[in-house]
Amino acid sequence: MANDAQAGGPGQDRTQIDTTVPQSARIYDYWLGGKDNFAPDRAVAEALATQIPTIRTMVRSQRVFLVRAVDYLVRKAGIRQFLDIGTGIPSLDNVHEVAQRVARESRILYVDNDPIVLAHARALMTSTEEGRTAFILADLRQPGDILANPALRETLDLDRPVALFLVGVLHHLHDSDDPRGIVTTLLDALPSGSYFALTQPTGDFDEAAMAGMAATAEQSGIPYVPRSRAQVEGLLDGLELVEPGLVPIPAWNPLDLDYPGAAEVDRDPYSVYGWAAVARKP
């Protein structure tokens, strides 16, 4: 089926959009120049930008990384299935658009916990006739619910490799949420030959600025946890890193794609305070 975006599974009645409190997906939408955000989102976004004035470039760099990683996995690794958790509001070049430009049979399952993303998923996350897309309204902190959702097995064949994407979402997990346990649970459900792509903000490049960013976000009710290189390496334990390894987000550039905005974010990789990696499950 070509137009197969859907929501399904337990808890799917949580579709009311609260515009009175800021939400991370809408804040990212504002930074990316979108229009699906509200006054509380914009207020927090501007407050965060006072801590790190280059935040918009940092957010765009995550988008460039996502495009590069998907393109690499489809072209070079032969991946045809993607599990994208923390999808955010659809923007330019979503996972299915990048993947299906190269391999029309690609299948993508999107997951997010913000009902505004669901509203857009129904309209925008369409597929080629040969492939398939679907959407689950669910929370990364409950990976068992994601794996048990019928939409997952209706969309993805777990006997074949799947690329798990956690791009721009891991820093919204507190340590008490057990991010490593969540990643392990998800990867354990995927077969050998699957891949894991991540980004993670860090204080390694500017500790004071990132500490201010995190404090401002937390005060606004949005979890924000920078992590060191060593902590990110822990999330990749047991996996085989794809070259160039764990690097600043803009430095993950194996194909040198000509992508809008890439030149800006590539100028100084260390001006983007985050790590990125793609790794293979042996």
Task: Give a verbal description of the structure.
- With 282 residues, this protein is of the alpha/beta class.
- It has a single domain, classed as Vaccinia Virus protein VP39 (Rossmann fold), CATH 3.40.50.150.
- It has helices at residues 24-31, 39-51, 55-75, 95-102, 115-124, 143-148, 150-155, 179-188, 207-219, 229-235, 262-266, and strands at residues 81-85, 107-112, 132-137, 163-166, 195-201, 240-241, 247-248, 274-280.
- Strands 1, 2, 3, 4, 5, 6, 7 and 8 form an 8-stranded mixed β-sheet that branches.
- The chain is globular.
- Mean pLDDT is 87; it is low at 1-13.
Protein traits:
282 residues, alpha/beta, Rossmann fold, 11 helices, 8 strands, 14% strand, disordered N terminus
Tell me briefly what this model is:
This protein is α/β, with parallel strands linked by helices and 282 residues long. The protein has helices at residues 24-31, 39-51, 55-75, 95-102, 115-124, 143-148, 150-155, 179-188, 207-219, 229-235, 262-266; strands spanning 81-85, 107-112, 132-137, 163-166, 195-201, 240-241, 247-248, 274-280. It contains eleven helices and eight strands.
Number of strands: 8
Which secondary-structure class do the elements indicate?
alpha/beta
How far the N terminus sits from the C terminus, by CA atoms, comes to 32 Å
Describe the global form: globular
- Number of discrete domains: 1
Q: Return the CATH class.
A: Alpha Beta
